[in-house]
Amino acid sequence: MVSTVSFTLNGHRQRLSVDEDRRLLWVLRTDLALTGTKFGCGHGSCGACTVIVDRRAVRSCQTPVGTLAGKDVRTIEGLAPADGLHPLQRAFIEHQAYQCGFCTSGMLMAAYGLLLNVPHPSAADIVQRMDGNLCRCGSHTRIVAAINAASREPGGRS
Amino acid sequence: MRRRDFVKLGAGIVVACRIDPLWAFQGRGQLPRFNYPTDFNAYLRVGGDGRVTCYVGKVELGQGSMTALTQLVAEELSVAPASIDMVMGDTDLCPWDLGTFGSMCIPVFGPVLRRAAVEAREVLRELAAERLQVPAASLEVKNGSIFDPRDPEKTVTFASLADGKAITRHVSVVPPLKDPASFSVIGQSLPRRDATEKVTGRAKYSGDLRLPGMLYAKIVRPPAHGAKQIRVDTSAAASVQGALVVRDGDLVAVLHEQPDEAARALALIAAEFERGAAAIDDLTIFDHLVSAAPAGQQIVGQGNLVEGERAASAVFEETFLNAYVAHATMETHTALATIDGGKVTVWASTQAPFMVKTQVADSLGVPPDRVRIITPFVGGGFGGKTMGQQAVEAARLARATGRPVQVAFDRREEFFYDTFRPAATMKLKAAIDGAGKIVLWSADVYGAGEGGAAPIYDIPHQRVVVYGGWQAPAPGLHPFGVGAWRAPAFNSNTFARELLIDRMAASAGLDPLTFRLNNLSDPRMRRVLQTAADRFGWVPSKTPSGRGVGMACGVYSNTYVATFAEVTVDGSGQVRVKRVVCAQDMGVAVNPQGARTQIEGAITMGLGYALSEEIRFRDGEIADRGFDTYRIPRFSWLPKIDAILVDSPDVPPSAGGEPAIICMGAVIGNAIHDATGGRLFQLPLTPARVREARMTHL
User: Fold this and answer.
1) Closest chain B C-alpha to A149 CA, distance in angstroms
2) Do B54 and B207 meet the contact criterion of CB atoms below 8 Å apart?
3) Residue A24 near residue A65 (C-beta atoms within 8 A)
């Protein structure tokens, strides 16, 4: 059913006239031209489409846009502060924690969601919370190292 | 490239190199099995702004080619890497290339590109000599400038030499490539050039491109390979607002301005298919590969097997199997096509833009010069993105609708149309003498292909025959598409060989490292084995020792690799890999951090085909079509990984993307045997197979 849905997207108020059953992933990628969030499987089993809703990492391919009314949504496009990169992004570069880069947006947002809720994660916390995010290139060890490094940075958890 | 085509590259110095393919392969000891063109093969443009644009047909798949190829140009041209712009995989702008696979960017294409840069540097030096009125031989080239070291006044930049002019010229004598001892850019861990784009979500993949008026297509697909479309009722789909149904022969699609709406409309289409005859499944395939095998090709023949058997004290005969596995790249096959004034342009996720260009041209019946393939970032390939089905479909639908059309496979389509790594049956026979020397090796390899099938050990009497493989498989051999999968055939053949080697070591009463070294004279192989053993802290013991440790080694395209692993096996047969140490001799590593990343990635990816990845199927129907049942490696599987680059400055840069994966099935298989005493013969090494192997042993 088409209705008006308002939420905060990357710090800005967003008002959409949209079928509220449509999945956030497609609304982001098509209606809003925010293509940093990727389609990987469409079933919530790969994590490529991970975004943050009210400080929690969620699968945008499973999230009806109608459920977002009044909520705060952040995508990869809203991770970096205006004056540079988020510590997680810097750590991913530093540790060369990606190869093809296709899972990277989802990895970063899942990691961001982790740090928002567990500011000082152990390696086991990182592995457990990231386990649903798939990477085919095999950058896992570097991703764990990057998240660990970013969690020690000032600003890494905000 | 024709002369008039230079114009569209704009002003600047264009260096067009005529590369003799024989030259490019000097010192490699072998010619490639394909024909590189003998016409212009690499282009560099020095702009009036001093920036260098490098046009290559290679593609950035994640392996870091954009960065490593930049380093090659920077080294030979003597400019800062940051001043080089890479244009990759655009068939209108870049010279022909076969495709980005086989770890060939650096060892095969690298010398070609470096030579182009050398010639460019020499052209610039000549131009500078004319400008400065100084003999070219007395000028030095450094960091984008050319100067007379004895007269600091006499300096000119690349930018000013190129200013506003389009110059094509050659030098009569092209000096040799730089000696590795003088490298200043090659061998450095230059940060990846795609870094910022990829961590900000700004990197564009084929599915991220938008054109005015574009439509997203979802296509009616058969339920099984071999199924034929009987009838399709699209009436319900057509009732979805904004949905456009298109029939182009057998291609039935529904298109919409929203991809999710197109998918919703597709679900309303009722399609009937006639299934093919009942055929093979994932259990019967291994016998089928033998019974339906094409004629064998003997790739190794040496000595006399009868004589070998006479010298033998123990003979071993085993059959090894491996399943079909999927590429399962995170990015599915995607393309966006548009047709404008008779020119077809397709942005496609592909490893082989020039092959896809031919496919699209053939399919549309247009001359190839009316087709342009552009390759944005590609979200993983591993050999799975060489066929351009999605590009062809997008182009056909763009023609049918007159609008730009995107085709992006969903995950189920991706698993269905994947060109899997073939299943394989490998029948091996080998023998040792009383001194623990291998005296005989005989292998019949069905389905896999020849890569890695030749034994790497010193064996006087050997014979290897290969019956079909991943390349151009005989019709009917495989029930669906197969193709290259990261280090094609090597994973299968290395598994079989290295497990049999361990078996013989145990029979000889020798530690598996000692046994290998006793049968290897190649110094590079001995060195990687010893290096990995030292780092691993190998303590010699006969197997099974109960420790759960093992090793495997192999050679892939002049890169030597030895891998050691430690595993635990629980009561259910579940294997956990705790630690992997891998030593690799790949000659000069152009970008050591990038090379280590590739090794780690290969090890991590290799856990999958070793432990869990297996496509189950029956009568053309693929059972595993999602990440729920097709399990690929995850964070929780991670071993501690130690990747060692063995310093090898005298060997030219060699393969980097694939070698480290080839040992993974074997090293884990050997470590499981060391832990449990159970012998395994089939990949993947699932808990059920591990349990069964243990029981067989007891």
Assistant:
1) 16
2) no
3) yes
Shared domain for B491 and B365, answered yes or no, is no
Within-domain flag for B262 = yes
B318 and B190 within one domain: no
Count of CB pairs separated by less than 8 Å, A with B = 170
Best B100, B190, B211, B260 member to test A by mutation, with max A CBs in 10 Å, is: B260
The confidence score (pLDDT) of residue B164 equals: 58
Has residue A117 been placed in a domain? yes
B628 vs A: CB within 8 A: yes
Domain with residue B403: its CATH number is 3.30.365.10
Would residue B413 count as lying in a domain? no
pLDDT at res. B113: 87
A123 touches chain B (CB under 8 A): no
Query: In this structure, what token pair is assigned to residue A29?
Result: 């990628």
A78, A111, A135 - which closes a domain:
A78
Q: Are B633 and A133 an interchain contact pair (Cβ–Cβ within 8 Å)?
A: no
Distance CA B518, CA B510 (A): 10
Strands B438-446 and B461-467: parallel
> In order along chain B (698 residues), what is the average pLDDT of each group of 10 residues?
40 51 40 37 75 92 96 95 96 90 87 86 92 95 95 92 70 85 95 97 98 98 96 94 95 98 97 89 97 96 97 97 98 98 97 97 97 98 96 98 98 98 98 98 97 97 96 88 96 98 97 98 98 98 96 97 98 97 97 97 98 97 97 98 96 94 98 96 98 77
Residue A135 Cα, gap to closest chain B Cα (Å): 7
CA distances from B693 to B228, B447, B533 (A): 42, 24, 27
Domain end (from B199, B226, B241)? B199
Q: Which of B331, B382, B345 is nearest to B598 (CA)?
A: B382
A101 and A43 in one domain? no
Ranges in chain A, pLDDT < 70? 157-158
Q: Do A7 and A74 belong together in one domain?
A: yes
Q: For chain A, how many structural domains are there in total?
A: 2
The tokens of B684 are what? Answer: 């993947």
Of A36, A56, A78, which marks where a domain is finished?
A78
Distance (Å) from the C-alpha of residue B603 to the closest C-alpha of chain A? 8
CB contact under 8 A, B200 and A89: yes
Same domain, A6 and A68: yes
Does B201 contact A98 at a Cβ distance shorter than 8 Å?
no
Whether B331 sits inside 8 A of A133 (CB atoms) is: no
For A143, the enclosing helix (H) or strand (E) is helix A140-151
Same domain, A10 and A70: yes
Q: Return the CATH number at A52.
A: 3.10.20.30
Whether B653 contacts B110, CB under 8 Å:
yes
Does residue A98 share a domain with residue A74?
no
Q: Which domain holds residue B587?
A: 285-324+420-697
pTM value is: 0.95
Q: How far is A26 from chain B (nearest CA, A)?
A: 7
For residue B27, count other CB atoms closer than 10 A to its CB: 7
CB contact (8 A) between residue A23 and residue B602: no
Domain annotation covers residue B414: no
Give the number of domains in chain B: 3
Return d(Cα B555, Cα B561) in angstroms, integer: 6
CA distance B318 to B508: 17
**B-chain residues within 8 Å CB-CB of A98?**
62, 198-199
CB distance B330–A100 less than 8 Å?
yes
Same domain? For A57 and A93 the reply is no
**A92: domain range?**
87-151
**B260 in contact with A, Cβ within 8 Å:** yes
Q: Cα-flanking dihedrals φ and ψ of residue A106, to 5°?
A: -65, -40
